[in-house]
Specification:
232 residues, mainly alpha, 2 domains
Length: 232
């Protein structure tokens, strides 16, 4: 029984392959690839995919840190002042602090460590911006490659729908014809069983091809975050 099923399946594959020359004469996968539409898919993915938005946020934060580093040159400097009253009753010399002056006293202190570290901090902030931008550019290349591969697979399954459907219709037609002949006693049970197996296998292949097509479509739309039909 196993050998019989294998033989029948092989016969069906030969039958399916026999349909391909007619299909190939009508359409080719390479001719169906649209470079313009493919670029639209890539651009849509680079705009909508969540990780791209996260990388954009990293660039924004890196630029914000750079701006903060550039305007923080005053951080090492601190202004201090002391206010002393001019009231003669309370203007006696403080023997502890030896304060002799009255009014406002100002002073500036400099944190030399922070001051000398500023150029390095700014340079580091600039490098962080470059790293964030490079990460985004690298991911854009990876995303573009991923979109193209999934588009080609989607197109392959899409173009497989017609020949597989036709093969199923032909197998079903042959089965109906053999079924009628079998009921009339014109063919053997082996021929009837073989035709029944062929149409069942054709139906399973049709279902699998349709499932592969839908899966490829969903996989591509996962990257574009938009229905393929809505991308013009």
């Amino acid at each position: 029984m196993h050998k019989k099923s294998t033989f029948t399946f092989i016969c069906f594959l030969f039958f399916l392959l026999s349909q391909l020359p007619n299909v190939a004469a009508q359409e080719s996968l390479l001719s169906e690839v649209s470079p313009v539409f493919l670029e639209k898919l890539v651009a849509t993915a680079q705009t909508n995919y969540p990780k791209v938005k996260a990388l954009n946020s990293e660039i924004t934060m890196a630029k914000s840190d750079l701006s903060a580093a550039k305007i923080s040159w005053l951080d090492p400097f601190s202004l201090q002042y002391v206010a002393r009253s001019n009231d003669a009753n309370i203007n006696s010399v403080n023997l502890t602090t030896a304060d002799l002056l009255t009014g406002y006293q100002f002073g500036i202190s400099v944190n030399t460590g922070q001051l000398f570290a500023k150029p390095g901090n700014i340079k580091k902030a600039k490098e962080q911006v470059k790293i964030a931008q490079a990460n985004e550019e690298e991911y854009f290349l990876q995303l573009a490659s991923l979109v193209k591969n999934r588009y080609f697979l989607y197109l392959q399954y899409q173009k497989s729908l017609v020949p597989v459907h036709n093969a199923y219709i032909n197998a079903k037609t042959d089965f109906e014809a053999i079924k009628t002949k079998y009921q009339r006693g014109e063919v053997t049970f082996l021929e009837f069983n073989s035709a029944s197996t062929s149409v069942n296998q054709a139906y399973q292949i049709k279902l699998q091809t349709e499932a592969n097509y839908l899966s490829a479509k969903a996989s591509l739309e996962e990257l574009t975050v938009t229905r393929i039909e809505d991308i013009k």
